[in-house]
Design a protein that fits this description.
Elements (H helix, E strand, L loop, with lengths): L1 H8 L4 E3 L7 E3 L2 E6 L5 E6 L8 E2 L6 E2 L6 H12 L6 H6 L3 E8 L2 E6 L6 H6 L6 H4 L8 H5 L14 E7 L3 E6 L16 E5 L4 H10 L4 E3 L2 H6 L4 H4 L3 E7 L2 E7 L9 H9 L3 H7 L5 E3 L22 H10 L12 E2 L2 E2 L1 E7 L3 H15 L4 E7 L1 H10 L4 E7 L7 H4 L18 H11 L4 H18 L2 E3 L1 E10 L31
Parallel strand pairs: 18-19
Antiparallel strand pairs: 1-2, 3-4, 4-8, 5-6, 7-8, 9-10, 10-11, 12-22, 13-22, 14-20, 14-21, 15-22, 16-17
Length: 508
């Protein structure tokens, strides 16, 4: 949610074309050029892009008419690369970004230390950062002070299409269209004047708010999509449904630092004890695709020869026996070297699908002699347990980038680092070598070959039990026009509402 809010208020040098996401189109950058060796990107900024005016909540100083310059991009890179700043996953993408050299207020160069295929994506995806907000003191920038600057971190100061208005804790977050947004002069301003996020924690209450018209848009659960969308607002067109395959996947992650999950045979057995087809039908109502790896099934990077491990309790029990797990004392639970095969699975307290799915998994594991306990936790606690790697098994999801770089999630160097995306501690020398070669390879056929080799390693190792690629299931008010579905989703920047159908803004 924080990333979504920030994206509303900020902009980047360029963005992917909605219809052809492999292509970039300019935003803050007027133009750019790339050296033949892919090591230097020269950026020319548009003039007349301004930061949102604001009053510093700590000092009380008012900041108005502050123009975005090249120094703000350098500040962003310096902050992310600062080892004291809590942004380990982001730092992985910038590890080979050597420096930003300022030429003048509107031109700068981004220098990379080595050829990196993702350097174009990362460079053009750079956003500026308001130094006048986050370094409003004398002396060098202090990363720890930045982390703990909770008052300033409760606000968003950007230069993008929307301005942060207010956050009513546990109620709503309000944004208003930026009247000085630079896109206005190019005919690229969003039509909606306000965007309001209502914070409603219970899924059924959210759905009732949608039916009553208090919400204009809601991501539906598969159960709601199948069983609740025959109600009158959907029949008469007051609400419309949109369905498309998401660029994401869900998984169960096994903490590989735990001896229970150290053996790949055990992890394959665990996967083969999870009846994904039954879960797909009974929990997701067939509104998911079974995942085989970390890349989108529509991507060329995905190996079509890899098939999901089947639900096969007999084969799974054989693998467990080969790994030395047997029920020696006849209590129904496998054991090895005096240790019972018993572990705890984290369950997100606000996820209705997990609440339905986890008991099913617990049952099929129990039939094979594995005791899985379920611990229901709030999201803030869940994240803390992941960052500290104080968990045994978790169930989560990742987005699937269009041009994947597995480094952040899968490289051994990211294991054991607090806050790392490699929270399960996966380490594999062959996978590391492929990831590193993939980062410096620009030939697409070679990239596909490398990515598919990487997929085969994950398939055999099963550090994750790859679960499903979900469909995005969106219900939206029929008041909105120009609602379009592209390969990367439904950009709300294209929406508009006729004047006679507009409504007052809640909370204002």
């Amino acid at each position: 949610a924080a990333a979504e809010f920030s994206a509303l208020c900020n902009s980047s040098l360029a963005e992917r074309n909605y219809e052809k996401p492999e292509e970039f189109q300019p935003l803050m950058a007027e133009s750019w050029s790339v050296s033949e060796d892919h090591l230097v990107y020269r950026i020319k900024l548009r003039k007349g892009i301004y930061w949102h005016d604001f009053t510093d909540p700590v000092t009380g100083k008012k900041h108005t008419d502050v123009e975005v310059t090249a120094a703000d991009f350098k500040f962003y890179v310096d902050v992310v690369k600062n080892p004291d700043v809590n942004c380990e996953p982001m730092r992985g993408y910038l590890q080979d970004l050597k420096e930003v050299k300022i030429i003048n207020d509107y031109e700068f160069e981004v220098h990379w230390s080595r050829p990196y295929y993702g350097s174009l994506m990362v460079t053009l995806g750079l956003s500026p950062m308001p130094r006048h907000l986050y370094h409003a003191y004398d002396g060098p920038f202090d990363g720890r002070r930045f982390n703990d600057d909770h008052v300033r971190n409760r606000m968003i100061v950007g230069c993008g299409p929307y301005m942060f208005v207010r956050w009513d804790k546990d109620r709503r977050v309000i944004f208003r269209r930026n009247p000085r947004y630079f896109g206005i002069r190019y005919g690229a301003a969003p039509a909606l004047e306000y965007i309001v996020y209502e914070i409603i924690k219970h899924p059924n209450t959210r759905f009732q708010a949608l039916l009553s018209g208090d919400l204009d848009r809601l991501d539906l659960t598969p159960e709601q999509w199948v069983q609740r969308t025959d109600e009158k607002p959907f029949r008469d067109g007051t609400l419309k449904r949109y369905k498309y395959l998401a660029f994401s996947y869900t998984y169960i992650g096994w903490n590989l630092t735990n001896p229970l999950f150290a053996d790949a045979k055990v992890r394959r057995a665990l996967t083969m004890l999870i009846d994904r087809e039954k879960i797909r039908k009974d929990v997701y109502f067939d509104l998911v695709e079974t995942a085989t790896g970390p890349f989108s099934p529509t991507s060329s990077y995905t190996d079509p020869e890899i098939k999901p491990w089947p639900y096969d309790p007999s084969a799974a029990k054989k693998l467990l026996a080969e790994a030395g797990w047997r029920d020696e004392d006849g209590d129904g639970i496998l054991e090895k070297d005096g240790r019972k095969f018993s572990f705890t699975m984290l369950q997100a307290a606000t996820s209705p699908t997990q609440q339905r799915m986890m008991p099913m998994i617990k049952e099929t594991l129990a039939a094979a002699g594995i005791d899985m306990k379920i611990q229901n936790v709030e999201w803030s606690v869940y994240v803390q347990r992941l960052e500290e790697q104080t968990f045994e098994a978790c169930c989560l999801g990742w987005t699937s980038p269009i041009d994947p770089d597995p480094y952040q999630v899968w490289h051994s160097s990211q294991a054991g680092i607090r806050g790392s995306s490699n929270h399960i501690g996966f380490r594999n020398a062959e996978a590391d070598a492929i990831i590193e070669e993939l980062r410096r390879t620009f030939d697409m056929e070679k990239r596909i070959e490398l990515a598919r080799r990487f997929c085969r390693i994950l398939h055999e190792e099963q550090p994750y039990t790859f679960l499903f690629v979900p469909y995005s299931l969106v219900a939206q008010s029929g008041r909105y026009r120009n609602v379009r579905v592209f390969p990367t989703g439904m950009p709300e920047s294209l929406f508009w509402v006729p004047r006679n159908e507009q409504r007052p803004v809640p909370g204002l």
